[in-house]
Design brief:
Distance between the termini: 24 Å
Helix content: over 70%
Number of strands: 2
Structural class: mainly alpha
């Protein structure tokens, strides 16, 4: 299912890291542990609810999205925490936020995901469950355990992204990641991942994310209204899904 909580989890990770680093603990390492640990646990919680109670992923991750955003705002009392502007935090934030750190981190996560999906048993299980849960279950795959681990990994990656976002923007913002869910859906659809499951890959998703990022930069440089950008992204999603449907009909 589609995980609608990634943007809110990014915001939660971002605020927890900033609050821990600039607050009582004053530790960037502890901030990372708290931030990534919190989002990973929430991902685990979502996976357990979806698998254990057989609830729709859309509904569960929608609830998680709302709850995580609310938790992020509550933790910092709806304020934004400045980080990286003093001697205590500047060096660490500058190091983590630089492209020489962000880009390799992105590549490492991409390579690990590529290996996971294409060269591990768990990756084959993910594709099988995405294609047909009933067929996967009849094949002896523990579908519930596969789904739980997928949502756990989603929370883990969102947590890492939140720490990077905080250091890049120099702020722990509970409003960070707004509409990132739309960007995530658009990236995977443009990259060829089927919303019906069972078809897709990391490389296609990376290409989709890069294409979407380039489009956003071009539109931003040309001062295109942000609301118009959202409408264009929505149109791109519809066109990409329609093209997938056409391809499916031709091969049928």
């Amino acid at each position: 299912g589609i995980d609608l909580s990634v943007g809110s989890l990014l915001a939660l990770s971002c605020t927890i890291f900033a609050a821990t680093f600039t607050g009582h603990y004053e530790s960037w390492a502890l901030g990372m542990v708290f931030a990534v640990g919190a989002t990973t646990l929430i991902g685990l919680f979502s996976g357990c609810i979806i698998s254990g109670l057989r609830m729709q992923p859309f509904i569960v991750t929608l609830a998680t999205m709302i709850g995580s955003r609310g938790l992020a705002k509550w933790l910092v009392s709806n304020t934004t925490i400045a980080v990286g502007y003093d001697d205590k935090t500047q060096e660490v934030v500058k190091f983590i936020g630089q492209k020489a750190f962000v880009v390799p981190t992105f590549l490492v996560v991409t390579i690990l995901a590529l290996i996971l999906l294409n060269w591990t048993r768990f990756g084959r299980y993910i594709m099988a469950v995405g294609g047909s849960e009933d067929a996967a279950r009849l094949s002896g795959i523990n579908v519930s355990w596969v789904k739980i681990r997928v949502y756990l990994l989603s929370g883990l990656v969102a947590g890492i992204a939140g720490v990077l976002y905080c250091c890049e923007t120099h702020q722990g913002d509970p409003k960070a990641g707004m509409s990132y869910e739309l960007d995530a859906i658009a990236a995977v659809v443009i990259g060829g991942t089927s919303l019906n499951g069972g078809k897709g890959g990391i490389l296609g998703t990376v290409v989709g994310a890069l294409a979407l990022g380039i489009l956003s930069n071009v539109l931003g440089l040309n001062n295109v209204d942000e609301n118009v950008q959202w409408m264009l992204k929505a149109g791109i999603i519809l066109v990409a899904v329609w093209l997938q449907l056409l391809g499916t009909k031709k091969t049928a």
